[in-house]
Amino acid sequence: MTTVRELLDPDRSLWHLIAVELRRQRELNRLSGSRLGVVLDCDRSTVSRYESGILKLPIKHAKILDREWGTEGLFARLVHYAKSKNSEDWFIGLTEYEAYATRIKMWEVSWVPGLLQTPDYARAALAVGIVDDPEAALEKRMSRQAAVFGRPKPPYISVLLNWTVLAQPVGSAKVMREQLARLLEVGELPNVSVRVVEQGSAAHVGLDGSCMLFTVDDRDIGYADAPHGGRLIRDLAEVHNIAVRFDRIGDMAAPVGPSRALIEKAMESYR
């Protein structure tokens, strides 16, 4: 099974470079993960998460490494520049976490989530956005799906959809029928649940935007959607807020059976 560490690409992300260089320097200095944890005043699992890129190395630990290993400010500079890049590697990180997560929770306000889109629906959705190469973007989206659903042991996926996802036409009526049929098909998988927040529901915390929550290596990582890319969230307090938000939306969503009936009813409207 591919690990998060094996997915690191230091040529595409400064945070990945930091993770790879941290492990390389630790091994050069003949330190175990536990021993480095003592140096940094943290536990071995935190060191492991730094080296896998799940946790970003904080500046205080970067400065300790530079002092202990005589790296003349290397780690502090790398962390400084990585933070100044405003997480330009958000999509790289998102696809990695999707591919490795044991559980994925998603809430979508306006669109069918990318992991559940048919090629025709995805093509129609990409056509109305600002994408330089829609076909290349479509290929990436389909690759994301294959990485999640094609695994020997796929993650458990909980999907919450706003009713507008079913009502908003994307592409032709045929495209919508096929897309809604895809939702029904995916919803029959033992590892997937699809639920809908019905029209007429009271205002709720989910109306301010879509989000996702991944469980990777027993740690939850959040993702907040945005028009120009989105943001991966690793801060424990922020991740907790997303988890609570997801639960509150789920409290308002219809159960799986009635949600399925809502999707079937929506299909009938696209004739």
From TrEMBL:
GO terms for molecular function: DNA binding. Residues 94-265 form the DUF5753 domain. This is DUF5753 domain-containing protein. It comes from Actinomadura craniellae.
